[in-house]
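tl;dr need the bound structure. longer version: we got a ligand (adenosine-5'-diphosphate) that a collaborator sent over and nobodys looked at where it sits. i said id run it. heres the input, straight from their email, havent touched it
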Amino acid sequence: MIKSIERSAHSANQRTRDVDNERQAILELVQKIENLIYFPEKIEKPARIPNIWEVFSKEIKRYIETDVCALFRVDDQSHAFELAHCSPDDLDEHCRREIDAQIECGMFAWIINRRQPALIPSLVFKKRKTLIMLPLTTQTQTLGLVMVVTGISEGAITHERLKLLAILAKQCALIMENTLLFAQLQKEHETLQNAQSRIIQAEKFAAFGRMTSGAFHEFLNPLNILSGHLQLMQMSELPPAKIREYAALMQTQTDRIASMVKSLQRFSSPRKSECQILQLHPLIMAALDNTRARFPDHRIRCDVVVAADCPPANVNREEFIRVLMHLFDNAYEAMPLDGTLRIRLEQDVIEDIRNAHKEMIACRINDSGRGIPAENLAKIFDPFYTTKEVGAGTGLNLSISYALIQSMGGTITAQSAEGCGATFTVYLPGAEASGENCCD
Ligand SMILES: Nc1ncnc2c1ncn2[C@@H]1O[C@H](COP(=O)(O)OP(=O)(O)O)[C@@H](O)[C@H]1O
Ligand SMILES: [Mg+2]
């Protein structure tokens, strides 16, 4: 009886020990899995191959005692194996001979093709050593191979331990692949940026060329007139009436130069306009009256429509009227005999350069004039761009208008086709943009 109680107690103790051991083994496994999962977090960001290798080779030592741990990369073209990193840094004579022998007999290539880890007893070292071969491959890429030299005999390395090392190598290969892809992406992004800045630079030069050739014309004309009249005045005794006539003409030309220089200052020192919240309708009517008065012979039908719910805008009164006058003048000039000018004021949503949607107040000015050919449409906002006869236009009004509206936080767009009229839209920020109350 006592014997049987002793036996049951013994077997109960044994079961408890077994359960404890099993629990210990599970805890150790969980720890190993945790290490595997968190291994990528130990790599310094942004990751580089030497950092990855440093962490990976240290990590391998957690799973197995290592004499040597070496990373080989495969050359894309020659498919040759090249030693990329190793720990310790210097390989001894035996190790070098072992590597050469393994590469020569095709073992490295075989491991890579099979995409499976392998244990190989070393033939070169005096003491018994085992080589652990871990391929660094992903679904799409072969990144290389890791060779570990350990003093543990082949038979003592369990399948479980080899499996863990293979998982670690797989993780390492994925991180390497992502790092290489990221570096490639960065390089492509840089190339794209360089190409983009070259295009912008070329466009700047082209615009600068157009601008300077226009500017030369615009400045040379009044200067030629000035110098011609000065010569006339120096060469002959002129009656006082003629001198007054020439002086008035020269005054007009100097005024013209001064006005162009003033306009250009707008580009050299752009500033933010002083704005207030105003209803735009009265400003449109003021600008329209001004243009009508300057083109008394034109038979233009004007239609002004204001959307019922159109809110006020944040605007600089004088500058906005000036812009409208420039746009109305251009429209009138494009309809020399008769035509229709439609002006519509409404709220609209536009996309800014960051693709964000912005509510703006849109003033659309549409004429039924000659229109703008597609090849000229991109140039009309360039300073000094004009299709008028030499001396008839400065080619500055649209570029100045653009700069003025930009300094109010708005923009101007143009749509047109030859023979089909033109539509210029002035967008201005609404009252919410400034948070002020309407002053009208
Ligand atoms: N409504 C329009 N219809 C047709 N062409 C236009 C219109 N507005 C502007 N343009 C074109 O844009 C050019 C530049 O205009 P602008 O800057 O006002 O300078 P300018 O009137 O002195 O030529 C004009 O010469 C003309 O070719
Ligand atoms: Mg004009």
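gonna send this back to them w/ a short note. The domain at 15-181 is CATH 3.30.450.40 (Beta-Lactamase).
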